[in-house]
TrEMBL record:
It is found in: Membrane. Its main location: membrane. It comes from Desulfitobacterium hafniense (strain DSM 10664 / DCB-2). Keywords: Membrane, Transmembrane, Transmembrane helix. The keyword DNA damage does not apply. GO terms for molecular function: transmembrane transporter activity. It is a multi-pass membrane protein. This is Sodium/sulphate symporter. PANTHER family: SOLUTE CARRIER FAMILY 13 MEMBER. The keyword Nucleus does not apply. The chain crosses the membrane at residues 23-41, 53-80, 100-122, 143-168, 188-209, 230-252, 288-306, 313-335, 355-375, 396-427, 439-458, 479-499. GO terms for cellular component: plasma membrane.
């Protein structure tokens, strides 16, 4: 696989290298689940149609986590159409696909992947990394150095992808470590590189206008009937605050509790770092793409923070995130540099359009909504099964149980797939116990990405476990497990109350 394909492999298929026989086994398991759910008598209170939808959705979860994303997504919609959920006959079957792919979130992702793919292809992220890592404040300050490396990784992950950031940051940081004479035998090595991975993993959902985060947050909006939708800008603020707290706690824990030997990092200087960051002078394309990011964010935020009586703000509210993203795609397509468009749509789409994410989003949105609808009886079944375990608990304990379960199960299955499975569960029980589902759903959307203790958790986890030149499995588990527990507690005791304030 070439680097351009790797850069945008933000997909739910974290088992791309799985032997063919295992792929066939998991494929067969999914079809067996569908067959069993379609022929067995309904498990009350599930309806006959609910059994078919539930079996199909569970099969998609298994396939997304173990096999692929494209054909399972199409296959899932096929079986939901055959279940009669949208009506019988050709009209009902066709309605499933037209409704799924006609969702405005699907269109947003289609355009955003090209826009941010062009941002990555321009080379702008490399200039961000170089600028951050050549600030004089880090001279002779090991923990400031690590904080700036982590900050660069966090920001680049937010505007590109976790996989892209790993591919970009690994060679940069390895050159930095080589220049400082730090090697894998030094005590600080695993804490630095595992910490880098943890920050990247944490930041992958901070900019939710791209990738699977759109599907996860969009699923909540669909389940709520868009009556009280999650506003993506608020989600960005929440994740940025939590990311700052997480990174700060990690570095403070290193400095004052673990206290690894950082003597070699005391030689860090701007001159040494700059020597490993040779880049040509920044050009017009990179400058425009870098300027686009803050303006893009402002255009998204403006309708939420400024009065809509202003005609420009009113216009931005009218076009929404989809319109803002389309505007920038058109802008970069019109502007030319050296007789070339700054955004060659077909060229960028060929390298950076992620078909796995594109097909997963409509199938996950539609499948989750179908599963949680009154026609299936799935919500009643969840209440019947889980009420004995959750009833009588305080709100905080209730939230802690659900979040802990989500983190545990997503350590062994794909993060995004588990978030999609958990969303209707969160929604049902928050309503059942009189808890605002919005705050819980928002934290759930972020908390599943804490899980990274097996290669199956995410694509970047698979990449990290497989990179034996940098990471040892024992170091990932030794450092990652306690950090995951601490991050879980951070979300339960600080993140959830913060979400309730931000999402009133």
């Amino acid at each position: 696989m070439n680097n351009s394909n790797k850069l945008n492999k933000e997909v739910v298929d974290s088992k791309a290298g799985m032997p063919l026989n295992k792929t066939h086994i998991y494929t067969l398991i999914g079809f067996i689940i569908i067959a069993v759910f379609w022929v067995m008598p309904p498990i009350e209170p599930l309806t006959p149609m609910g059994m078919k939808v539930a079996g199909t959705f569970f099969a998609m979860i298994i396939w997304w986590s173990t096999v692929s994303t494209i054909w399972p997504s199409i296959c899932g919609l096929l079986f939901i159409g055959l279940s009669g959920y949208a009506g019988n006959g050709a009209k009902g079957f066709t309605s499933v696909f037209t409704s799924a792919f006609g969702n405005n979130i699907v269109l947003l992702v289609m355009v955003a992947m090209v826009l941010f793919g062009a941002f990555t292809a321009s080379g702008a992220p490399k200039y961000i990394a170089r600028w951050i890592l050549t600030r004089k404040i880090l001279n002779g300050r090991p923990y400031v150095f690590m904080a700036l490396v982590f900050a660069a990784a966090f920001f680049i992950t937010g505007v590109t992808s976790a996989v892209a950031t790993l591919i970009l940051m690994w060679p940069i940081t390895l050159r930095l470590m080589e220049g400082l004479d730090v090697n894998s035998d030094d005590q600080i090595w695993p804490y630095f590189f595992v910490g880098l991975f943890l920050v990247i993993n944490f930041a992958r959902s901070v900019f939710p206008y791209k990738g699977v985060m759109v599907a996860i947050l969009g699923t909540y909006n669909e389940l709520s009937g868009n009556a009280d939708p999650i506003i993506f800008v608020q989600f960005m603020v929440f994740l940025t605050i939590m990311g700052f707290l997480f990174t700060s706690l990690y570095l403070l824990g290193l400095k004052f509790i673990i206290r690894p030997d950082v003597s070699k990092l005391r030689d860090v200087s701007v001159e040494k770092l700059a020597a490993g960051q040779e880049l040509p002078p920044i050009g017009l394309p990179q400058k425009l793409y870098l300027a686009m990011i803050p303006i893009y964010i402002f255009m998204l935020m403006a309708p939420s923070v400024l009065p809509t009586s202003n005609p420009i703000v009113a216009f931005l509210e009218t076009i929404g995130p989809l319109g803002v993203t389309v505007f920038w795609v058109v802008f970069f397509s019109i502007v030319h540099f050296q007789n070339r468009q700054l955004l060659e749509y077909k060229e960028v789409a060929a390298k950076h359009f992620n078909w796995g994410v594109f097909f997963m989003i409509p199938s996950s949105l539609y499948g989750s909504a179908a599963l949680a609808s009154d026609a299936t009886g799935f919500k009643d079944l969840l209440i019947q099964i889980l009420t004995p375990f959750l009833s009588g608990k305080s709100e905080l304990l209730f939230i802690a149980i659900l979040f802990t379960f989500a983190v545990f199960i997503s350590s062994f299955a794909n993060n995004a797939a588990i978030a999609l499975l958990m969303m209707p569960i969160i929604f049902v029980f928050c309503e059942q116990f009189g808890i605002d589902p919005k705050s819980a759903a928002m934290v759930l959307s972020a908390i599943v990405f804490l899980a990274m203790l097996t290669p199956g958790a995410s694509p970047q986890a698979a990449m990290t476990f497989g990179n034996k030149d940098i990471y040892k499995t024992k170091d990932i588990l030794r450092i990652g497990f306690p950090v995951t527990v601490i991050a879980l507690l951070l979300y339960i005791f600080i993140g959830y109350p913060l979400a309730k304030i931000l999402f009133l």
